[in-house]
Design brief:
The protein is built from 13 helices and 12 strands. The longest helix has 15 residues. The strands form 3 sheets. It has a 6-stranded parallel beta sheet with strand order 7-6-5-10-11-12, sandwiched between helices. A 4-stranded antiparallel beta sheet has the order 2-3-1-4. α1 runs antiparallel to α3. It is of the alpha/beta class.
Amino acid sequence: MADWVITVLARGSVEPVLDKVCESLNEQGLELDSIEMPTATQQALEAVWGADGPGYACAELSATARLVDEKQMRAAFRLLADDRAIDIVVRRKSECARTPRLFVFDMDSTLIQGEVIDELAKLAGVGDRVVEITASAMRGEIAFPESFRRRVGLLRGLPEERVLELLGRIPLMEGAERLFAELRKRGAKTAILSGGFTFFGIDVQRRLGADFVHANVLDIAGGVVTGEVKTEIVDGLRKAALLAEIAEREGIPLEEVVAVGDGANDLPMLALAGMGVAFHAKPLVRATAQHAMTHVGLDGLLYLL
């Protein structure tokens, strides 16, 4: 029986890259057993979504390990994926046999195409300063709680009506609605665990039909943002703790949890989940997380289920 399953996803055809994938596979100490094009998955998605479906090309390779340096193997496939603008997800056969029942997502730059705090900063006239801090935090250069307090402090005095203008203005991530619709059909639970703000997280929860949302409260008094942080910050460790709490409450083993995020503060929950996916992530996160998807939308996850 094969030890590993290598899933190749692309927006165009995967056939031109399969020879290179097989070559890399052999170089990393794997012996190819079979290659399959899982058309049933594609047909099922097209039956639901028609021409608006994801339409990614997919190939699934099964391989047996001879002598594998797993870290080196993942790094080699990551370099190949970047070079060919495709996604390569490497999983153990045992992982593929699991049925995920809880999916947890970061919000900013994962479920939505932007960072709420950066957009609020633009409204407050401090956009460049906050964007710089955000980028540094997501790269892991500044501890998230410290970066969060500094950024919120720069929002002091922003009128509440300007804050609420942001609702609905940041588009959902490509494929988010398709993914959540399919997860609801499967009876899976979904959660938004965000280092962003509750007011926006609740709106995204409504738009996608997520079961749970946990985020930070943007403190407002007298109709303006106070610039203060008065509640516990949802940082990386808190996200992991919330994931564990939800899984325990729902009676779902951690092995049946999928976590998806893009920033350094997502790494603890990506490591805790049975499958952690760095989605369109920063280099540090992609290099650290177990799996990475960079060139397809969120609905690319459907090809891994």
